[in-house]
Design brief:
heterodimer, A: mainly alpha, B: about 150 residues, mainly alpha, 5 helices, elongated
């Protein structure tokens, strides 16, 4: 546990999570969700859970971001609500 | 629908990068039982390299390199490897996936038999996860229509 890294990472995680659900552009939301996944990956590495962090980096930041981008391409880019 | 884009920089960078991504995915699968990583993560990395092919080049080019038929074969092959390893343990008289008993047919002691049993499980999981992730991505990127893929 390195509390200095915690102080840097935790506000960034909260900012990315809140921004991903409030932004109007779906593509921006996807990119923000990828950034959230990557920050969570760094947080887990810092807490010592390397295997969970590896899964988060491969699945959360890598594959699911590509899935979301492919899904955004077949829908409209801006939300209606 | 992802349209093909004619950008020499993206194509060259992807052509250089994709072999290293695939090598890293194979490394993660092969070292999954001794270090962080494993079949699921390695399969996801291999699938991500295929998605990079689709994004950088176009869909027919990607399907020419890794066709839908090969994808189906790979997705069942991984399950077959996993189930076959488990059933070999059952046939030799132990529980399902109790790899230690595999030392009866492999020329190693039970500890190393467990090691190789775990390795073959990781390979099976990696192959299936790669094929299923690629198939999900192809479903999403074509909007579920699978242009020309259903004719194969």
């Amino acid at each position: 546990m390195i509390w200095q890294l915690d102080i840097i990472l935790l506000p960034l995680v909260v900012i990315c999570a809140v921004a991903a659900i409030t932004v109007r552009d779906l593509f921006s939301a996807t990119v923000l969700l990828g950034a959230f996944s990557f920050l969570m990956c760094m947080l887990w590495t810092e807490m010592g859970a390397v295997d969970v962090a590896f899964t988060e980096a491969a699945v959360g930041a890598g594959v699911s971001t590509a899935f979301f981008i492919a899904a955004v391409f077949v829908t409209t880019r801006r939300t209606k609500d | 629908m992802i349209t093909p884009l004619e950008n020499i920089i993206i194509k060259t960078i992807c052509r250089l990068l994709i072999p290293f991504i695939q090598l890293f995915g194979l490394y993660v699968i092969a070292h999954g039982h001794g270090s962080p990583g494993g079949g699921f993560q390695g399969g996801c990395i291999l699938a991500a390299s295929f998605m990079l092919v689709v994004v950088a080049f176009d869909l027919p080019e990607a399907k020419r390199r890794f066709s839908e038929k090969m994808n189906n074969i790979f997705s069942s092959l991984g399950v077959f490897i996993y189930a076959w390893t488990g059933w070999m343990c059952l046939l030799l008289g132990a529980n399902f996936l109790d790899y230690g008993i595999l030392s009866k047919i492999l020329p190693v002691n039970p500890v190393m038999a467990r090691y190789y049993g775990m390795f073959s499980i990781e390979v099976g999981v990696g192959i299936t996860v790669m094929a299923i992730m690629v198939s999900l991505f192809l479903d999403l990127v074509t909007g579920g229509k699978h242009e020309e893929a259903l004719d194969e």
